[in-house]
Amino acid sequence: MRGSITLLVLIFGGIFLAVLAALSSYVLSQNNLQDVTRVQAEAFNIAEAGLEYYRWHLAHFPNDLANGGSSDSFDVTIPDPSGGTAGTAHLSVSANMACGQTTSIDLTSTGTASDDPAYPVTLEARYARPSVAAYSYIVNDSVWAGPDRVINGPYHSNGGVRMDGTANAEVTSSVSSWYCDSSFGCSPGQNEPGVFGSGSNQDLWKYPTPQVDFAGIAANFSSLKTTAQASGIYLPQYSTQGTYECSGWGWWQYCTYVGGNPHGGYHLIFNADGTVTVKEVTAETPLSEYPINPSDPTTDYALIQSETSGTTYTIPSNCGLIFVEDNAWIEGTIPSKVTVVVANTTSNGSVVPDAFIKGNIAYTSDNGSAGLTLISEHDILITPDAPANLTLDGIFVAQSGAFGQNLYACPGPYEPKGTLTIHGSTISYKRTGTQWENGCYSSGGYSNGGYLSRIDSFDQPLSENPPPFTPALSTAFKFVNWQQL
Length: 485
Hints:
485 residues; alpha/beta; 14-stranded mixed sheet; 8-stranded mixed sheet; 3 helices; 34 strands
């Protein structure tokens, strides 16, 4: 009997000790886990403090990327509230450069807590000026997005917005109300809220919101020309005005008008190998049209009639800037980041150049390593002979004019068209337009002209690191990307 009791005591004692040991181990492991979690939280805060320190440093010393030293990797001591040291943030800095200027800065901050350096935390961030590439559309005028539109990315107007399409991001207007007339489909004309219409996701509509300052985002053409001449590619004015050649004297003088090529320019064809083939446009076919920009004439010269065989240039890898002092027709495949500026800075003010989109524009990669920014002093127009189904990668900035397609004889050889797909951003000073309501007439009645289906989406990778000289929405650098590694 005593032996049985002793055996039971040993058995239950052993079970109790095993449970106690397991419980003690669990409590200890939980305490260790809490300690690790606490230390990692401290390290996270220290890494974040390192990023914030560098942001403060650049705000006060914008030209000192190395924090007063000579290395792009350095330590920053982070104090605690009691005057001691909370830990150390190790910063690694990599500046993205183009044409001798910093376009963005990639930062890696590794935080280590003083009381336990065994559990560091690393954060990665990109520091840049917010640019127009963060939007799908920015328009300085009132605008109408029709029911065929699918818009992925922020859409902003400094005027009113009639939104009948599908918008999957914020739609903002800088006015609380505006007058919608027949050109926006309102008959009779009437006052409407800043954003109105039959479009979906109306909870994303906001108005009024601050304006986008078009004067503030305007390019400095003279400075860009100088940079292109020094480090990029510069194409001088090719268009020529007609002149009178006279012979004789006094009453016997006889003059003959010698025609020039006032609407000429350059045809730029981008190649996937990093080159661009440039052809001189020697003649154009005038076409009657209804202009998207009401201040433009009703005849345009967007259709190339003849051109030279062309010269192929290698785009500089350290400065992808092309300045065209004349009209420019653009198409092709782009493997790197390129900015094309179409503007006239010469004394010949009679030439106000436009940019024309003649064909598809595509990137060799969609990971942000390739990109196009096209800045036009006036309009950016799709040519009549552009593909019926047109795909455009790029950031398109019509600085003082409009982005769109003029309306040609419809139905006709150039009208109507199919689908226009834009992957990037459209920035237009005047009202945009790529579809014309009731622009076609036949015996069956009226139908729409232009592109009958349109899909827009902003380019997320380029919004964080766009091509050089893409207009910035702010002069201050900000964090445009942030993640924990």
